[in-house]
């Protein structure tokens, strides 16, 4: 079993832990998860069809495992101690190791946003970037259990969640996300998912990752070719 499988792959059973946390919330005073209404689903579907969605693309054939994307993200976003917004996973094979750089996938159907009881998550209408507001966060960790990619990170010092924001402040100023800017091999890119999905060989599902239909990740991978 690869390191990636043990760290990323999350079954639906793990997501059911949310129910346990909901019960606990009645004791600690955290509002329970809001029941998703039909109107919410309809609104989400309408938003997905009418708004631009930005996402990442990642070419495993180009990645050299240098982790410059990780270092750049940490420097620009000033991670709290103990959290990692972006990680480079190493998949051990019979040949050379295969790398997989991942952060928040800014999903079209984000589980984190659905389960947050205090509305700390929002999805920008103009580009679909999923933003987390740590000032609203109560540290309940519902989103950590709901996200199949383990993107939300809990900070022990702040007592709050944080995660990749796709450097939306930089994007708003016409710059690239820090991770994309730092990648020397140009393995990591970003753009409109309608364009990313046209990249030859790009997929949203590879071995050991959760089913893409769970949250519809805005992340396109060009898998490593057999050498």
Top keywords for this entry?
227 residues, alpha+beta, Alpha-Beta Plaits, three-stranded mixed sheet, 10 helices
How large is the share of residues in beta strands? 15-25%
Shape: globular
Structural class: alpha+beta
CATH architecture name: 2-Layer Sandwich
Task: Report the sheet with the most strands, covering strand number, pairing sense and barrel closure.
Answer: 3 strands, mixed
- DSSP helix fraction: 25-40%
Order of helices and strands: HHHHEHEEHEEHEEHHEHE
Poorly predicted runs of 5 or more residues: 1-49
CATH topology: Alpha-Beta Plaits
Computed over alpha carbons, the radius of gyration is 17 Å
Structure notes:
With 227 residues, this protein is of the alpha+beta class. The protein has one domain (3-222): Alpha-Beta Plaits. It is 30% helix and 16% strand. The chain has helices spanning 3-8, 12-15, 17-28, 38-50, 68-77, 111-115, 142-146, 168-172, 178-182, 193-196, and strands at 54-59, 87-91, 98-102, 121-123, 130-132, 153-155, 160-162, 188-192, 219-222. The strands form four sheets. It has a three-stranded mixed sheet with strand order 8-1-9. The longest helix has 13 residues, at 38-50. The radius of gyration is 17 Å and the shape is globular. The two termini are 21 Å apart.
